[in-house]
Specification:
189 residues; alpha+beta; eight-stranded mixed sheet; 8 strands; globular
Length: 189
């Protein structure tokens, strides 16, 4: 796409529609070697592997009913992310974290991020977020998320990454982050 702008293209997060993932390796805070793959569309094989990760998800870590419980429900839920941009962290070939940006009704992208309980607290989620936000900045799109108000570590992380609270509800915050170097003043949702 030389000489063209790779910004949003007909609702896609970026102009390269290749199915080949962008791959990088990182060490988490437990010195585990992780492979992080970014996909413009979640391949069926990766989706199937994620079903297993989500099926093993601790029910105490589910927020607002997600991820859903049960293999058919998880598979259906992941299929709903078809149009999103995905980043998957793998350790020893198994998925241990997943984050996605899914197009929303107003041109922003909704963030969903989950890290398996055995890998929480080791900055796996931070690595996933940084990968996603870099892509959103490159594409020039805003990112929105919902987070439980009681989840102070997540709220602090999001604030450190440039998210601002735009709506407060009794149990959750809605936060939004404009693309890097953008001017964003609209707080309507």
């Amino acid at each position: 796409m030389a000489g063209t702008n790779a910004k949003r293209d007909s609702g896609a997060l970026f102009g390269d529609h290749s199915t080949r993932p962008v791959v990088r390796s990182v060490l988490d805070d437990e010195e585990r070697s992780l492979t992080i793959r970014a996909y413009p569309h979640l391949p069926e094989g990766e989706r199937d592997a994620l079903v297993g990760m989500y099926d093993d998800f601790d029910p105490a870590d589910r927020a607002q009913g997600i991820p859903p419980a049960g293999v058919p429900q998880i598979a259906s839920w992941l299929a709903g992310f078809r149009d999103g941009y995905h980043v998957v962290a793998n350790h020893d070939g198994d998925p241990v974290g997943h984050a996605a940006l899914v197009p929303d009704h107003d041109g922003a992208y909704e963030l969903a991020i989950f890290v398996h309980q055995d890998y929480q607290g080791a900055h796996v989620g931070t690595a996933l977020l940084r990968s996603l936000l870099a892509r959103a900045d490159e594409a020039g799109v805003a990112v929105r998320l919902h987070v439980e108000r009681s989840n102070r570590p997540a709220v602090a992380l999001y604030e450190n990454l440039g998210f601002e609270t735009v709506r407060t509800r009794p149990c959750e915050y809605t936060m939004r982050r404009p693309p890097e170097d953008a001017v964003w003043t609209d707080t309507s949702l």
